[in-house]
Specification:
With about 200 residues, the protein is of the alpha+beta class. The chain has 6 helices and 5 strands, in the order H-H-E-H-H-E-E-H-E-H-E.
Amino acid sequence: LQKAQVALQRLASADELTGLHNRRGFLALAEQSMKLAHRAQKPFALIFADLDGLKNINDTLGHSEGDRAITDAAFILSDSFRHSDVVCRLGGDEFAILMIDADEQSAGIVRKRLTEKVDRLNAQKKRPYKLALSVGILLCSFDEELPLDVLLERADALMYEEKKSKGASRRSEIAMAAPGPEMSADSARCDRVFLA
């Protein structure tokens, strides 16, 4: 009975298509990871990734090809992070990752790794579109006091900024949080940095 309960819990927290954690699983594990980061006094990063052009893929090539793009993106994301990082598919074309002990340097490494893996996949697989991800990286101090849902919104906003900048610029950008309107600059515990 206990094994069956564990199996049911795992199914309830796993995304059916990708095998990654789903939103429910991510929220529970990310909250735990943030508490661990606080206790260990380690900074953490919250990463929001979006699969670019999924609607167009679905509309022109069908949902099975859209599912293939989602599973390819999920593989790249899960293969780009440590086993201790929490990687999930929030739903649709959106993914989130929580990394403990993350700083500007590790964020740059992750960005480079993601870019290389996407480029490698696009070079190997023949398809009528190029897989692309837009990513927002929010770096936070271990003593961050904002709730996870607010941090997710900020990481999402940073991802959207990158998505918009792709049309205007080809530079690679790592976006890290800035204080929102409800936070004063001196109370912010997250930082924002742009790397050319």
